[in-house]
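quick one, 436 residues, struct below
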Amino acid sequence: MPKKSQTSRVSLESVGTDCSRKHSHMDRVATEGLVQAAKQARRFSLSRDLSSDKDKEISGDSDSLASPVIPRLPSDTSSFSVLADKKKPPKGDRVKAFGTKGKRSYGNELDGGGIEDEEEDVDKLLEQIFPKESESLSGTSSPRRMDSAPGLGYGKGTIHFSLLYNAEECELRVQVIKCKSLAIADHSGPLNPFVRTDLLPTATKSREMKSPVMSKTSSPTFQHLITYPGILESDIKLKTLRLCVMHAGRLGHELSVGEARVPLKKLKPGVDEKIDHVLEKLTLQPSDTVTQTDDRGVIQVSLEYVPDKSQLMVGILQAAGLAPMDRNGLSDPYVKCYLRPDPHKKSKHKTVVIKKTLNPKFNTEFTYEMKPGELAKKTLEITVWDHDLGKNDYIGGIQLNREAKGSLLLHWHSVLTKNQKLVKWHKLSPNQFVEK
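---
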């Protein structure tokens, strides 16, 4: 009986010849289609072979079956050794060689285990020709992306910086000097590093600052000074400085290299401390945040009483770390001043509105005329508000009088006893004041 398998079988050599060309990543889908077509042709051919073998056994024909055509891809013969080494078993061992694990049957006695082996071999060839989607064409994995949620630090390197706390001015100075040997796992391209700093715990990003971006370097030199005004001694005992080294990618995308944390309670006032810190994984701890009610910010106020003119000079200099009241995460702050009791509200003054900021600078001074004996009975009320089209939002405030406590009492007492200007930072209270 003529061998129909040789006339009906679709040769895989044409497919192998097509695969020998240099494929790009975008040609993968087309090439897989060709291979799937070859698989279908191989199944059909093997089915015809099995039918032909059965007829030969009945007719007594002992001619052996022609061995299947092996695809030969000359582009890289070592990559296709799996198919090159595969030989067809003798006739008597065909049932044993094919086995019984196949899921499809193309005859009464034989099932398709051998066809599954051929499919696995072709799949192995595809994996050798094309890298997986999770890997780049160069053999390295594509860089990971940082989600909006922090905690995806997976780099290495060191950061060198210095810290100086000025207790008299309530100011923390952070000098970002340089970084060394920065690297990000699974990122093979050049880095564009910058440093972002903030004070923890915090309820907002009002204390978040950053250095300039240095392009295409793994050991950048910044020499960038970051200043935090309004850092009280109580903040030094509770706050932690975090420095995050980041990579600025395309279209504003950022990748984390690592972070360094320094508790401020270790600082000595007036001492410039230089620190080398190994970068650690960027994480977000539960203690990093506080509620907005607890932290409303601080305000810097100057007070001076001039006896010759019987005038109280009140200066509203600046505020820092204010609580955001708008949906954009910012506020439009302004300040009101009252000298109570004032039934006719003639002592009311207010500053201009500073748009879209949590660290406004007002540099405004108000004057109240009164005798020294009357000043001791007064209460100076300073409140910070967020300006809106409808009702303005209360951010926080302070009261200075003889019943105040702590730094507020010391500031007010110095006005009554000393004829000199004194500038102080005060923490804003979330409580609104009611005139007694």
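The two ends are 117 Å apart (CA to CA).
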